[in-house]
Every structure is written in C-alpha cells, then in structure tokens.
Amino acid sequence: MPQLTDAQLDKASLRTVALARRAALAGPAREVAAEAAALHAMQWLGEVKGEVVSVFAPIGGEIATDPLVRRLREAGAAVALPIVLDVGKPLLFRLWEPGAELVPSVGPGRISIPAPPEGAPAVSPDVLVVPLAAFDARGNRLGYGAGFYDRTLCLLRRAKRIEALGYAFAVQQLAAVPAEPHDERLDAIATDAGIVCPAED
C-alpha cells in the first residue's frame, strides 16, 4: 500500500504526525531550541516596548516560552496569558506581572493551564504568540481541535490591528495543513530554525 503524504492526511492524522515528532525531541535539544526560537521571534517582532504580548504557558510537550517571556520583558513589553472562559467562547487575556505566581485555571476538557491570578487586569493584546500542533509554510495552523485561537483571532482582527505569531519547534512543520473557512492564518511562525513567513496569495 502506498504511503500517504502530508497533503493527503486528515487533520487528526496530521496532528498525530506532528505531535510524535515533537515528543521525540530530547530534553537538551528542547532547551536549545526554545532559546533559538525566542531570539527569532524577537527579531521578527521588532520594537515591542509598550505593547501587550500574549504568550502561552506550555503544556504537554509544547516549546518552552520562558526564554521569550524574559526577552519580551527586557524589551519593555507587557506580558499576558490567555484564560479559557468556556467552550465555544473566545479567550480572555490577563496581565502577567513579573514575579506573579501563576495559578491553575480550567483549560479545554480536563486540562489545567497555568494562568495569572483572577485579580490580574484583563487586557487586549497587540500580539498573540500562538501554540500549535502543526503548521505549514502558508501560515495555516493546526491546533488541538477546540478552536479557541481561531475564534479569538477573528474577534480581535475585527477590532484592531494584531499580529499572530505561531511558536513551535521546526519539526512541527508539515508540507500542508488543510484550511477551512473559519481557520485564521498566522502572520508568521517562529521556530528554532528561523521564521516562516507565509507568502501572500
């Protein structure tokens, strides 16, 4: 039986492929990759002083964001983290002050996600650093199936100019990720291998 290419696989199968690649990365390689991705992200973002940048607290095997958070704060950006309100709703963002301890918050399904305390101010980000399972060179993102970031990006893009930067290991790039009408494309993807900037259609 001939082997299927990335372009012939469905979303669930593609997600499995990309997450298996991510899981195969060893600990030391992950640390080096996270530092490199943070450097590439900052180069792409440019001047961030005074901007609100939402990052994510990595769960499972996601790339570490600590090196990026450190650089963002050194550059004068305010850092926020997303909060899951409910299934089918867009994300809320709360300011993560330096030194503030994160607390568990309800994520999709039974997942617990670290988040700023409930009293932290809600903010509207200028930049979204977006987690993902897989991506392609056209800026298509494959998430985890709940649609939180697609809904949130759609809402924010109607209200203001916002940059959406995918953040992942380079091994998570696939030849093609199927895109549906509700899927929101990324402006770029920062990885340990560099920046993937989608070409205009």
TrEMBL record:
Matching InterPro entries: FTHF_cligase, FTHF_cligase-like_sf, NagB/RpiA_transferase-like
Cited Pfam families: 5-FTHF_cyc-lig
Chain sites annotated for binding ATP: K11, A12, S13, L14, R15, R141, L142, G143, Y144, G145, A146, G147, F148, Y149
Statement: the UniProt record of this protein carries the keyword Nucleotide-binding: yes
UniProt EC number: 6.3.3.2
Reaction(s) catalysed by this chain's protein: (6S)-5-formyl-5,6,7,8-tetrahydrofolate + ATP = (6R)-5,10-methenyltetrahydrofolate + ADP + phosphate
A GO molecular-function descriptor: metal ion binding
Record's keyword terms, sorted: ATP-binding, Ligase, Magnesium, Metal-binding, Nucleotide-binding
Residues that bind substrate: E62
Family: Belongs to the 5-formyltetrahydrofolate cyclo-ligase family.
PANTHER family, sorted: 5-FORMYLTETRAHYDROFOLATE CYCLO-LIGASE (PTHR23407:SF1), ATPASE INHIBITOR/5-FORMYLTETRAHYDROFOLATE CYCLO-LIGASE (PTHR23407)
Identification of the protein by name: 5-formyltetrahydrofolate cyclo-ligase
